[in-house]
Structures are given as C-alpha cells and as structure tokens.
Amino acid sequence: MDVRGLAAGVFGCMKRCRECRVCFGRNNSLEESVEKSLEPTLWPRLRLECAGLNFKRHQLARLNLRFASLISAVDVPEEGDSGVERARAAVEQATERLLQRLLCTVADLDSRFATKFLATLASKAERAEHRPWPGRRFHYMIRLDSLSWPPLYPAPEADSDFDNGETEEVASSTAFFDEGEAGVLPPGWLRVKPAQGAAQQAWAEFLTPSGCLRRDRVVERFAMLLSQAAGTNTNDSETDESRVCGSPGKVLDAALLQQLLSQIQPQHQLFYGPSEAQRCRPPDPRDFQLAVVHENGAGPVTLHIGFLAPSLQLAFPPDARNIVKVHLHVGVALSGWPLGPSTFPSRLPLHHPLALLAYQSTQNGYFAVAAPPPPNLRCEERRSAWAAAFPTLELELDEHFCASSTPRRTLNVLRHLVSRMKKEANDDDDSESLTTVDDYTLRTLVWQQLERWTSVNAWEPASLAAHVLLALDSLLAALKARHASHLVLPDCNILCQTPLDASLVAKYGDHEEAYDAAMVEDTQLVMDCLLRLYQAGTSTSPLPQGVSWDGEEEERRAAALEAALLRRWGNALNTVSPLPPEMLTSSLTRFEKISKFCCGQDTGDPPTPEQFSSRQLDFLAKLMLEFLRFTKCCYAPQYKEGNEAAVDVGSLRCSSGSEETEDFLFLLQAVINQALGSAAHTTNSKQVKRRCRQNTRRAQTDKQQVWQEVVCDSVRREPLAIGVLQNEMALVRLLLKWLFKATELAPRALKRRLANFLTQLWATSREAVWYLPEWKKHRQEAQDELNAMAAFCTMLLNSQEGWTGVAVLKDAAEKGWSWAKSAQSELVRSGCLQFVLAPAKGVVRRCDVALAIQPSPRDTSPTQVSKQVSRSRTLPAKGTRPTNISQDELTLRLGHRRGSSGHCGSLIPAHQRLKDGSPMTVALDNRRRHGQQFALSSLVHAFIAMHKISVLQDVASLLPPHERQPVLDALQKLSRARRQTRKHSSFESDGKFTLKNPEFPLLELVGMKSNESTGGRIESANMACNILSTCRNARNLQRRHSLYSSLGAGLIYSTSPASVRRRHAKDSSRQGIALLQLANNGELTLHSRNTGLDSSQMF
C-alpha cells in the first residue's frame, strides 16, 4: 500500500470533516453558511485552455453571486398585470387549438399526412418557464404516422397490456441507410426509404429512382395542404380521434409520445377531450390572419398567426406586431439507434451516473426531420437527405433536473449571456444574439458538461460559475475550430446548421464567405464576454443596479441547504459502506485528487467480486439489463430485407458450447468492448494518442487477439450452473468474476484500463445503490397508475353505450389513484369532463362525465342501492400504505426546489389544464425525476434509505424558524415509524384507505356492467426480464446485421464506419477481409480470399 497516497487521502478527509463541523454546525448562522457555500470545493482555481484565463476561487465565488442574482431577476415576469398574463395565456390556447384544427383538415385532405398526436419539442417544465414576448415561438413535430415507428395500431396478436421490453419487434414501415447506392451523406443526415408494399405504393410520387423519400416534395406538399386548410371552414364538431389530433390531451412532448406508442396498447390510451365551451365553438381560421412560409422544402414550415381580437392583442407590447410564429417540423419516427463506438450513449461508460437513464431513453427511437444539409457540406442527392433528431434522449436529460438545479441554471445563464453579447459590444446594433450559435448549441454544451463531470460534488450550487465559464470556453474552441460536435453524433457539426441571415449572405456574395465572417465575429464576441467576466470577478465594485443578493433569501437558503447535504454525503457513505483496505489508496487518489504520485502509477488491484455487496449486484443487474436492451435496439433495424446479411467476425465462435454459454459470452464481450471503447474515447493523453499511431499497433492487436481467445476458451470450458441461470444477481457476480480474470490475463496496455473500469464501477455502484430504491419506487408507482388506468379503459370499452363510469372514477379517487383524483379535481372546476378512447382505427368512444345533484340521505331505495357497485368488482386499491410524512415533501423543503414560474392557477386556460393534466401525460411524466442533484434520485431519499435521519435534522437547522420546527417534527415521526417497521417487518398492509373530501359533491351513481375477467386485480407487467434471454435476442439481431469487418479488428464486436464498409466492399478480395452471408435457411457462409484462416481461428 502506498503510504504517501494513504496519508494524503486521510488528511483530505480530516480537512473536509473539520470544514463540515465549522461551517455547518447547529449554532452557525445562515450568512456564514451561504458565504462558504458560494466557494466551489472542486475547483481551487479554474484554467480556461482556449481563452488562456485563470480564475481563482474568490473570482468564482463573486461570479456565482452575480449569476444567481441574474437568474432570480430573469425568473420574475416583466409585467405583473394580470390582464396581460391572462391575454398571453389566451394567445397560447388559441394558437394550439387553431393548429390542431388545421392539422385535422390536412388529414382530411390527404390521409398520408395525418398525425394522431401533436408532439412538442419543449417539455412541460420548459414551456412553463417565463419567456419574453413577442419573442415566444412554438415548435412542434408533425409525425407522419403512416411512415413512423411505432405504428398507431400494432398487430392484433400483440394483446399484452404493456410492453416488457422483450416482445417481438413490430415491423417498421420505413428503413434507412446512411451511405450506399444513393450517394454520400454528411454526418448527421440519413435517408428514409418506405418499406416495400402498400407504404411504397402510397408514397410513390415522393420517391427518388433509388426508392428514397424526397424531403423537398414532402415539405412542399404539406405546406400546400396547410395553406388549403387555412382557407377552409369545416363545421364538423367531432373529429376522428383514431387518426387525427383534436383533443387537448393528445398534445405532449416527443419523448412521452414515443413511450406511449411503444409501451401502451391503443385500447388503454385515455385522453381528455375538449371542454364543453370548446366543443360549442371550435376555432375558425377566418378569425386570424394566417400565412404559411417555407423555402422550397428547406427547413421547417412556419405558420404566422395574426390575432385580430382586441382582447388578445393586449398580450403583445404596443410597439410589436401581433404575430406568433409556429414552426412545424415534418418528421418520421424511426426505431433503433445509430451504431458506432463514438456515438452517445455507446461511448458512455457503464460507471457513469447517468448511464441507466441514457440507456433507457434511447430505446424509444429517434426522428428523421425534414431539414436539408448546409450548402457548404458535400452531399449527393441533397433533396432526399433528412436530418437526424434525438428529442427522446434530449428531453429526458432536460427533465431529469428541475429548474433550480445547477445544470438548468447553467443553461439559463448561458442563454442570457449569449443574448446580450452583441448588444454590449455595440449599442447601435439591433441584433441581440450570436449569428452561428442557437439555443440548441447551448443545450448541447450543457449536455456535454453532464457527460464530462460525473461527481455529485461537481454540480453543487457553488460550481455554477465554473460550468458557465467551461461551457463558454468550449464554445470559443468550437468557433475557432469551426466545428461543434453533436451530442449523439460527434462528427456532425451543429454550428453549420444554424441558418444565416439573407442580408449577411448578400453582403459577402457567397455562403461560405458569409459563414467564415460570422464565425470570426462570434469568436470575438465570446472572447470579449469572457474578458468581461474575468474583470467582473476581479473587481471589488458593487453589484450593478437591479442586482441584489441580500433580497434573495430563498436563493441563499437553497445554496446553503444543498451544500450542507453534499458535504455530509461523503461521510455518511463511508459510514454505511466503508472502503476495503485494498482500495483505500486508489479510491482516495481518484476521488480527492490529492496524491499526484499515485495518479501517475498503477492504481492497484481492482476490486474482487466478493467485495461487491448484494445491493451493488442488484443495481448492476438492472444496469446490465438496460445496456443489453440498448444493444438490441441498435441492431434491430440495421438490416434490409433482400440484401446479403453479414455479421461481425466476433460472433463467429458460436458453433461450440451451449446457447446459455454463448449468451453469457456475448454479455462478457459487450461489457469488455464497452469498457475498452469508453476508456479510449475519454482519454486526453497526447502520448497515448501518439503511441496509437505508431507501428506497434499491429503487435498490440495480435496480443489482444490471443488474450481474447484465451478468455473465450476459458469461459466455454466452464458450463453455467443452474443457479446462475435462475438468479440475475448470481449471473452478475459470475460476470464480475470473469471480468476480474480477464483483467489478470490482459496485456499490460489493457490491464490498467480494465482495472480502472472495475474500480470505477465499484465506486459508482456503491453510491447508486442508495438512489436505486427511490428510482424503482418512483417508476413502479407510475406503472401502477398506468395499470389502473388500463383497467378503467377496459371497463369503459366493455360497458354499454351511455355508461360514463363516474362511480368507478369516484371509487378510484377514494382508493388513492392520482389520475382519478386529478380528474375529480378538474371535474369540480369545470363541471364536466370528456374521456376519449380510440381502441382501433375508425373506432372512437367518448364518455361525458358531469356532476350530479347530491342525493338525499333518505334515498335508500333498492333501485338506488343496486346502482352502487361493490369496490371489489371495480379497480384495485392502491398498494401504498399511508404514512405520517411525505418524503417528497421533505425533498421539496430540504432541497428547496422551486416550482416553475408559469401562469398562475387562476390564469391557466381550460385547454392548458386539459393538456397538462391528461391522465396519460401525467402518468408518463411522473416517471421523470425533476430532481436537484446530479444523481438518479434525491439525496434526501438516499439519507432516509441509509437511516441517517440525524443528518437531515442537522441540515434542517439552516431552515427559517417557521419551517424548521415542522420539518424536525416530521423527521422525528419518520424515524419512529421506520423503527416500528423494522420491529414488525412481517406486517403486510392491505393497501386500503380512503381520502375524504367534503367539498366534493356526490357524483351521479349509475348502473355498471362489471368486468369479470379482471377479478378486481390487475396483474402488473413483468419488467424484470431475464438477462440471458435479452443477450440471445441481441446476439441473433447482430447476426442479421449487414457489416463488413476486418480480421484484425481491435475491439470485440466493433462496428466499422460506413466509409470503411464501402471501401471493403469495393475490394473484398483484400487479404484479411471476410464476408459473412446469411442464407434464407438461417445458415452462415464465410467467403474469405487469401486469408488462410477459417472461422474457428477468429474471435
């Protein structure tokens, strides 16, 4: 053991403990806590490599002061007039209702452009944030349902309620390929090809000679249909909800839409219909000034809406035009995910804190959006190129954090700084933003920061200034290099996708020259902004007028509370899960960054499988399952029918051994590939990169192949035990055992990388196990809500015509189901409510629910009693025992998470309430975390899981007196309840309880046809799929994947870029190139020339 590293690590821990006692004791004041919480603990000094600036700790603390005050000032609306806020809410409602009306008319004119849902590109939390007017713009995704995956109505044999992730893939109506016979494409673009059959015949007029869908013709046709719809007045009050979007409950963001279609059957999809007032008077296009703008199939279709009503014109400033711009992005939803070791999240290491979230988010596919490549990029058949968009992943990353978290605050500060750069540089210039940098570029910078900094302490409130400066420095480097990498596709340049102003192009006469000139100007503006921030952090002048920290008590308290939680997290973790003696040196070195001696030397032996606890194995089993599902998702759509299919050479050695052994070997190879690939992509050492370019690469490849052969032969010689096949935790422990053996047998160049991977995996799982219970509970509660809603939909569909189900709705609310209580509250507010179901194409069921007069207590006739149905024959009771304290309430108070600053409750229009409160939208959105810290769940829940109630009591001392005592009493009750639970662990709750609401009048009780098949219970979906079965599905899909692979491949199961595959296809006779063909009977045939090897000699 390294004595110097151990001494440095222990000294660092003692220093932190001393700071914790001094700064956050029970008797310390709030001012001292806030002053200490403003200083970042991870960055004693910050070096900006591209800008060449050095920021010290006191400069970062002062910038934190300014940025926090800036965010507080931005969050406050500019005008406090309730009439203006009410008018703005009415404008948003009228805009969305009019758009829905126009899209329904478009579907009637041409059914190929029908869309059942209206997908927004901004989440609910993003839309609730304050935005200045009239700059408010609306962005929607027009999903072409006839071409998209998942289909609206899957095959009839898929009768399961919810997809458990292991069902057979539904055949998609589209196929895509990045490069091939249609020509070269720039990174980030693809081509959409309708499947052979009815889809190809229906879109025949939009296809190229090679069978690809022309983007320009599709956009032109949609713009023409939208123009016709704007001039058409339809009097139909009810629309066909099975294929068009006429209800407010069917407006949701793109990520939730893909989850809904892929996981919930059509007969179980429940939405809120329009209110009674909206049904009486649908929007009329003649009441607005409409203009449809598009540029010859380039970019989105823009709808300009002018408001003529005087009451709506109040929402706009007096000097602004009463026009709202609506951007409509025509897109096709595709299954799968782009392949490649450098794509996200393929390059994300398994030990990353957000790996579980990323793997789950990518299983819902992505979109091909009608956007052309920039003129300065080479592209063949430009008219058939579609841009790749990933809102399913991006929205989940955004919604994982709440508005007051450090990542979201970093994005808000960047938005404000970028919008003010040009105005501060030149007061005479009317422009207010950079030319080549848009909002998506800023969001990408924050996502890349989330990928880079993986420690929970790196995202404390005091690190706000550091992350803003690092993001600006990355933006400066990207502008100088003329390339800003996309999050998912690093080779895609997102800077060149920002459209330039026509006047700028006309000034220089050429798009390339205008692009370079704009880059130079934006580079100078970003550099000037960094210099001003450096001077602001150095100067001791008072804060600017209008910026005050003293008035923001809530901000000060939030910073102190979160800093206190983070400072106690490490000590609590070491108490409940101490470090093994063998790992003490390397772990302290890696996390504390104290001993430079140990950083340059060997980090020590990796953790053994016995050092992983059962909690860690449970977390790793969940992680491996999601990782395999993501791998299966990548390979699922990557083949084309009728073409010769090839598999990677790594899957050739599957002829010997049992299927279970080969499945386990696939898992082992995938994890090793991911470990080596992520280490190669995250390294920043110039010596390592230079060493890889030398001639020793071939010798290293030979050693790696020999090592791979030894590991595979060793695995095949030991058959899997029956207990391993039946227990996922035993399977994970066996996987760790073979990873440890592979590390011991690995060459020296790979041994250190695998040892570091195992060490980081142990350290990450050590923290994540305390977040996992709340993560599982949160998602299970959302799944239970969906199951109860599915039973309610089944009752509605099986009932007689005219049955409204109010009795079941009331009973469900009394049993604690959130969606029923929300519907009950909306029913009280509006007096009536409409449920819309579309179980099949052309079949729509509408159920109107209304309040009834409260019956007399004397009305106990047999007729009235017979109308009341027993609870045991309706919905099951919610399986949650009422507790004395809500842990979510503790999270809100101790974490001090602020709510969104949207419209006030009294100003929210009916359309907005029905859209955001729709049962499907609420249930799916409840799966998201909306948390504060950089973790899977809240630190408050983690401390409760650790039984560290005393830590929360110490942190509660920083609350104001009027909030402190209720929290302390709640914590005391929670501690007493948990002690009683441990004493009576065998107690089983029946889960039955009632919620009394005397203000709610009695609903109309009517007769109901009970569903005997449910039996009062709903079987929950089996979400714990077997890991080996997922391995087998992924392995079979990989065999069908078309790929040319070299015999000297460096990584196990590596995928070659498209350019490499095309080069190998032109010269397939080159030595070392093997082609695997998959015949119709399922047999593999190897065609190899001048190789002198057979399939058994390849790994």
Would you write up a description of this structure?
With 1099 residues, the protein is of the alpha+beta class. 47% of the residues lie in helices and 9% in strands. The chain is built from 39 helices and 18 strands. The strands form four sheets. Strands 3, 4, 5, 6, 7, 9, 10, 11, 12 and 13 form a ten-stranded mixed sheet that branches. A three-stranded antiparallel sheet has the order 8-14-15. α2 (30-37) crosses α18 (553-576), α13 crosses α17 (511-538) and α26 packs antiparallel against α27 (748-768). The N terminus and C terminus are likely disordered.
The count of β-strands is: 18
Uncertain residue ranges = 1-31, 157-172, 425-432, 543-551, 585-603, 638-657, 682-691, 853-873, 880-885, 896-902, 985-1025, 1042-1099
| Oligomeric composition of the shown chains | single chain
Radius of gyration: 30 Å
Mean pLDDT: 74
Primary descriptors:
single chain, 9% strand, 1099 residues, Mab-21_HhH/H2TH-like, disordered N terminus, 47% helix
Helices and strands in order:
Elements: H1 3-23, H2 30-37, E1 45-48, E2 53-56, H3 57-75, H4 82-109, E3 118-120, H5 124-128, E4 137-143, E5 174-177, E6 189-194, H6 198-202, H7 215-230, E7 251-253, H8 254-263, E8 271-272, H9 276-280, E9 288-295, E10 298-307, H10 310-313, E11 323-334, H11 355-361, E12 366-369, E13 386-389, H12 391-399, H13 406-425, H14 439-452, H15 464-481, H16 502-508, H17 511-538, H18 553-576, H19 584-592, H20 596-600, H21 614-635, H22 659-682, H23 686-692, H24 697-717, H25 722-726, H26 728-745, H27 748-768, H28 772-798, H29 806-814, H30 818-830, E14 832-840, E15 843-850, H31 862-867, H32 887-895, H33 910-916, H34 919-925, H35 939-945, H36 949-955, H37 961-983, H38 1027-1039, E16 1045-1046, H39 1058-1066, E17 1073-1078, E18 1084-1088
Parallel strand pairs: 3-7, 4-11
Antiparallel strand pairs: 1-2, 3-4, 5-6, 6-13, 8-14, 9-10, 10-11, 11-12, 12-13, 14-15, 16-17, 17-18
Helix pairs in contact: 1-19, 2-18, 3-17, 4-7, 8-12, 11-21, 13-14, 13-15, 13-17, 14-15, 15-17, 16-17, 21-26, 21-27, 21-38, 22-27, 22-38, 24-26, 26-27, 28-34, 29-30
